[in-house]
Design a protein that fits this description.
alpha+beta, 2 helices, 5 strands
Amino acid sequence: RDLAGAAPLAALVHLAERELSQTEVAAVRAGRPIDGTGEGPVALWADGALVAVGQGAGGVIRPETVLPAP
């Protein structure tokens, strides 16, 4: 399946997801962990756009792949 033209968030529908506040967006873009539940990969988004993919463990989500700001 060719996903080259797909929006990044749409390509990650199989992941758990978490909507971010603007404060959390700034933290994630700076590489800082945020509070969050669940274990494993999480799509982090705000305003309908993917911000990052993080890894949830132990009550926090650590950003692993952060997309550039639009």
